[in-house]
Amino acid sequence: MESVSIRTRGLVKKYGDVTALNGVDLEVHEGETFGLLGPNGAGKTTTVKILITLAQPEAGSAQVGGVDILREPARARRLFGYVPQELTADRALTARENLRWFAGMYHLDRSTREHRVRELLDLVDLAEAADRPVRTYSGGMKKKLDLACGLIHDPKILFLDEPSLGLDVKVRADLWRYVLGLKQRGVTVFLCTNYMDEADRLCDRVAVIDRGRIAVAGTPDELRAALGGDVITLETPPEASGTLAGLAQALSTLPFVKETLADGSRLSVYVEANETALPRVLEQASARGTTIQRIAYSRPGLDEVFLKYTGHRIDEEAQRV
Amino acid sequence: MSEFLQETWAQLVRWLIHLQRERFSLTFALVSPIVFLVFFGGAFSQMAQASLRGESYRTFILPGIVALTVFGGSLSGGIELLFDKENGTLTRILAAPISRASILVSRFLYVNLVSSIQVCIIVALALLLGARIATGIPGLLVLIAMGLLLGFALTVISLMLAFVLTNHGEFFAILSFLTLPLAFLSSAFVPLDKMPAWMAVCARLNPMTYAVNGMRTLVLSGWDWGYLAKMALALMVFDTLCLLLGVSTLRRRIG
Predict the structure, then answer these.
(1) Residues A216 and A235 in one domain
(2) Is A315 inside a domain boundary?
(3) A104 with B21: Cβ contact below 8 A
(4) Helix, strand or coil for residue A23?
(5) A101 and A245 part of one domain
(6) Per residue in A240-265, pLDDT tens?
(7) Residue B209 and residue B228: Cα distance in Å, rounded?
(8) pLDDT, greater one: B168 or A310
(9) Distance between CA atoms of residues B19 and B24, nearest Å
(10) A193-210 pLDDT, tens per residue?
(11) Which residue in chain A has the smallest CA separation from B98?
(12) CB–CB of B88 and A97 under 8 A?
């Protein structure tokens, strides 16, 4: 049984009349990368603020690394690293000086400090620029440094708030690589994002938050599967449509096929996410002599998941801000 | 305790690196006191001569200018914390396992260190221009201490403002609103007994007056321990009030 790294129960947070969180229950397992998905204003940042002990919920409870963060915030702070969405490294300092500053705040002794600083500079590919003031860095380099600062004390838990906001494709790919590396080392990563591809690529499990509530949680595949899974759509020339009924019947005996739906010369085959599904459907068709004019395999994205559970598309939300 | 020292030191080093890399702002902060000392001191010396019993006006206003330097440096000392707050760095610092006090203590030490350096520069310049300190080098040390007693409270106010205000525009507005009236409604440029009565009342409520008067005895007359103690005590009362106010405000803000 996996042990729980972060757990919240019924978190409620109000700012004046505005209810930012309205009963948030979350469970993040040790060593997994967990994505909190949602549009701006849905409650992602508020949730993180509470988890890093910098906001007090009106109701509910939360544990991070087994510590009750409402009772013992100071103890909890030793356990996690935090990388905010803004670029926060001190621009007057060099990368090395920034890291030493954080090392001091996390009470590393001198030899551990120097060792760790070198290790992190290498990790985020900043070793060469390490002694230049941060004001000369590109946005991507600053972000990498911020990530390194959040890892200075080798935390078991890392909070990453919108890590790839405003970054170019190359830096984004680098950050993703670092996060996947953390997962391999057993670090629990709590990631807030409104990029579906990011969640899909990095996260073992995701939760969709909308208007201060968790709308749904699960692995990306589970959430997709709940939408009916992947779908293969094939079309025959009109004169061959008569052969579809037989094909549909043959396909529905295959173990990975969930449902078939024939509609004129078009057949939709709902399948479990399975990379061999497409060739096997084609095999069946050619074995039965069905002519195929067009075939498409589509996988619902987390965009569709988001749409289903919140009633709106995430990118529309993002554009409103 | 050793953790407190380590985290405070780490943050102080950060500010010291700023000081080393941004000498411009340190120098710039000295421009207006130097202008006062050189030009104001020159321009008004003729006019003031009659009423000052033969002392040079430049010597007379030196304590006022020192107080003004400390005032400006201390009251704006919190601004960096406000910048940290605006760009999210403060959130990150607060998420670290540090005592909240270390944030304030490191900044406080830094601001008062810078004030002391600035006071030394101003005094050195005044001596070059012919001002004399009646109590000599020991007097200079007490003068710096008097300045710091004033700076202490103002730094606390400034740090408190940094946490209460939401942006640095407000901060600068308050700063410019406070500076001139507090400078002129004090004994910095005019002795209390030469002021209109209403002004003297205001000046007596202004902590800057006590710092200026204390420093002025050191510069003009000599070791008047009783008077010095009275001035220092007034400043310490002010410091204590600010500290109590500051601590209770910050408790509410950052827990």
Answers:
(1) no
(2) no
(3) no
(4) strand
(5) no
(6) 778 888 888 888 888 888 878 877 78
(7) 13
(8) B168
(9) 9
(10) 888 788 889 999 999 998
(11) A105
(12) no
